[in-house]
Amino acid sequence: MASQPPKSPFEKPGFPMRINKYLAGKGFATRRGVDELVARGKVTINGKRAELGAKVNEGDSVKVAGGKDVKGFRYFAYYKPLGVITSLAGEGEEDIMSQVRIPGVFPLGRLDKNSQGLILLTDDGRVTDRLLNPENAHEKEYSVKVKDKLRSSFEAKMEKGVNIEGYVTKPCRVEIVNENTFKVVLTEGKKHQIRRMCVALFQEVSDLKRIRIENITLGSLKPGAYRPIEGAELALFLKGLGL
Q1: pLDDT one-digit tens code per residue, 132-148
Q2: Catalytic residue numbers, as ranges
Q3: In the CATH scheme, what architecture does the domain 75-129+223-240 have?
């Protein structure tokens, strides 16, 4: 059988196309973000509620969040409380989007169920890779309490990088606040990274709170509350992402 010639990068995308790929390609959200919106009934195709895995044909009318076309991107700072998960909730669980009634947005990144603090919410899919890709080295700051008194060598070892199950973390900045509390600034985000780093240094985390992402701070927000990110604060944030 004769081999097929390679596709030109300038060819139109093939239809039918999965709904998550279609909306992600338009910069609306990541594929995962689109799947979450579809699961919540926020996406329609030709006026009918889309289902996970649905396909879009060329010329179909695709709308998001109750039939509204997204014309401008929105950004929010949200204080995720303890016990709330970032992704879709399972039975008996609560997720962010069941707590925050802002149509069309999705959380940027994750914060585990037993942690609290700052999560960014947006409908701007362009931001995801620019913010979360560790190669871009964007700062995230945390306030951490441990159960026992911090060891005298903790700061130096944490800042240098810690071997967590075969992976050595990137250098970071640590500020000791008191005998069992410290702040740390990371530019990467491995799963449960801070907790695993502490365990490797013989410390156990009792409370972990994210207080800053780049120039966006938790500030005076209370658990479960959110605020819009706009004006000079937003301009500086987007500039740091190259947008």
Answers
A1: 888 888 999 999 999 99
A2: 112
A3: 2-Layer Sandwich (3.30)
